[in-house]
Amino acid sequence: MDKILVTGALGQIGSELTMKLREIYGADHVLATDIRQIESDVVQSGPFEILDVTDGKRMHELAKNFKADTIIHLAALLSATAERNPLFAWNLNMGGLLNALEAAKETQSQLFVPSSIGAFGPSTPKDQTPQVTIQRPTTMYGVNKVAGELLCDYYFCKYGVDARGLRFPGLISYVTPPGGGTTDYAVDIYYQAVKTRSYTSFIDKGTFMDMMYMPDALQAVVQLMEADSDALHHRNAYNVTAMSVDPEMIGAAIRTLLPDFKLDYKVDPIRQAIAESWPNSIDATAAAEEWGFTPIYTLEKMTQDMLQKLKQKVGSK
Ligand code: NAD
To answer: In this predicted model, what pLDDT tens digit does every residue of 142-200 receive, in sequence order?
Structure first.
């Protein structure tokens, strides 16, 4: 990676990944793009352009003029939002990805495309879900992610596009709020713990899903993209995770530091159904073996850091 174009750079992942890439490769080497522009470190710390990823011609032009050798394609509609507007999700998620693949092909760039634990479905083995297994998701988001993994493989085999991907679990961070996913509760719970000492979860107790702290996710992207191409047997896309948790486990971890924290439930049937169709825990052995994936943050370590950073950010009760 040397000259990097990022799409969806103002979202939950992009706002932190862009800053990390600028730290490593230099501010001028990372062109951040998004469909909107807001006052933010990403916009102020280096080049920024408005880009709607459904506009393939502009994506190609921006990549070519910037002399990009890498495209990090983050713009997408997330699981819960996609389920409310499936046709829009298909057009944005698949149209945007095709444009990114074409731009990567034309500019001979490497391409990073995030997949998700949403690429699995109810018929997938639920515990320690293997790297290669049944993928029959029942959500539009999941259908987009499986189709995306396949399209990336297709462009690699047919055109030699070096497309690589990670199946991200729920990502937890204190910097930018999440954008409408099913695992968003695991971020909200920390904000509310700091602000009000109580949280009403829309995901039920006993519903286990994989999660990872944002610094581990960012490190995984850089490590995967810098890995020797010949070592990658499962390019699109690797299972990655740091923990499998339910709301009670996060509540208990918060209580070790904020003992009066209260957790109750008002389950949202749409997001609960999505969560139940996903694995309880996934197996990340292939990522560890092929390019050295090693997450650092456990639930306890992440909880300490989240609460400390959020107290500074939003103040404590
Ligand atoms: P997000 O919703 O926080 O950010 C998406 C960004 O894309 C936003 O800044 C939005 O303005 C932008 N965008 C929307 N439509 C656009 C368009 N037409 N053109 C250009 N930009 C547009 O999403 P995120 O959490 O940062 O996720 C990024 C990627 O990672 C997605 O593919 C998502 O499926 C995947 N992922 C995220 C998580 C997670 O927990 N955050 C987990 C698994 C996979």
So the answer is: 999 999 999 999 999 999 999 999 999 999 999 988 878 889 999 999 999 999 999 99
Whether residue 34 has its Cβ less than 6 Å from ligand 1: yes
Measure the CA–CA gap between 34 and 79, rounded to whole angstroms.
19
* 11 CA distance to ligand 1 middle (Å): 5
Query: Which whole-number Å values give the CA distances from 289 to 139, 239, 286, in the listed order?
Result: 30, 12, 5
Domain annotation for the chain: domains and CATH numbers = 4-169+212-239 (3.40.50.720), 172-211+243-279+296-314 (3.90.25)
Helices marked H in 197-233: 214-226
Spatial separation of the C-alpha atoms in residues 216 and 293, rounded to whole Å:
9
**Run of H or E residues at 304:** helix 299-314
Query: Distance from first CA to last CA of the chain, Å, rounded?
Result: 44
Is the pTM here over 0.85, yes or no?
yes
Catalytic-residue membership of 141:
yes
Task: Tell me, in angstroms, the distance from the centre of ligand 1 to residue 16's CA.
Answer: 12
**Distance of alpha carbon 90 from the chain centroid:** 18
pLDDT one-digit tens code per residue, 243-277: 999 999 999 999 999 999 999 999 999 999 999 99
Q: Is the C-beta atom of 54 inside 6 A of ligand 1?
A: yes
